[in-house]
Amino acid sequence: MDWPLKILFAAFLLAAAAIHGAQGDAMITGTVFCDQCKDGQISLFDYPLRGMKVAVACADSNGQITMRKEETTNWFGNYAMTFEGTPDLSGCYARVSGGGPGCGAAAGPPKNLRLMFRMFETEMYSVEPLLSEPAQPMSFCSRSSTPVPAPVTPVTPPPVERPPVARLPPMSPLPRFPPMSPLPRLPPMPRLPPMPPLPPLPPMPPTTFFEASACPYKNWTMPEYKCYWKAVSPDMKVAVVFGLIAAQRYGTDMSLWKGLQGRGDPYRTLLREATTALLNSYNSVQFPFHPLGVIQDTNWALMGSTRHVLHTALRFMRANAGYGKVSCKFTPCK
């Protein structure tokens, strides 16, 4: 046997032994939204909820709870929980078990777990978005989105015989009053002194939310553009923003500001462009990616191959460059 074939065979044996000895886990991920219109659907007015408690429970054939775990959603309404080993989660469901600040008066219906993939004794489950509702629908919701109660058939009461009404005597004519004398004329009003000139309004802060804008990562690292960091701050951790899968890859101490400095490695390049795309999505409503879409695509890439990581980083990089058609609308902060 040639030396290259011997080395390849030995590497295969080592990889097979490592895979066989790995302990599998079952991971469950999902998102909680505030159903402001109480219509049971996710619409334009709904938004992710942070600080909501989500419980995953498993029941046997008799309806008895055999396993239960609870987690709290992060800033973007996401939650993730892990079960050690590979338990049978076919009879499990997820539901909102506790309210956070704001929209948390009532919880929506529970949702079943959906198996995404199984590989090397590791299972990945996803849950359709869970809903939490306020006590009453918001005033801006249309009537069609609010549940309409069933029509009530009115009951016609039996006719009631009324006694005849006595006729009143005719009224006597009112006496005529003498004509009123004309009112005296009022003196003319004095003229008011002229108002002093108003001071000029302070300059408005820069905003590009309704404009098409796409800025590369170098612009987000410049001190004169720090005021455009809105929904997230440079010191926020990557694990908090992108979730558990990103924490396993980049650790729990990596900040967004440090993630913008990454280069030379496919995974560091993905984090740099994903962070830039997340900032651009919060800065311009016309950016091609939604904030939740950026987080979801990043996590899918981290669970795939290196080629998938490079492909996703290239997609974010092209969007951050405006596809050669949209420029960066930044102006120096005051």
TrEMBL record:
Annotated keywords: Signal
Signal peptide: 1-24
InterPro entries: Protodermal_1
Keyword Signal found: yes
Start-end of Pro residues biased regions: 148-167
One Pfam family recorded for the sequence: Pollen_Ole_e_1
Residue numbers spanned by region Disordered: 147-167
Name recorded for this polypeptide: Pollen Ole e 1 allergen and extensin family protein
UniProt source species: Rhododendron griersonianum
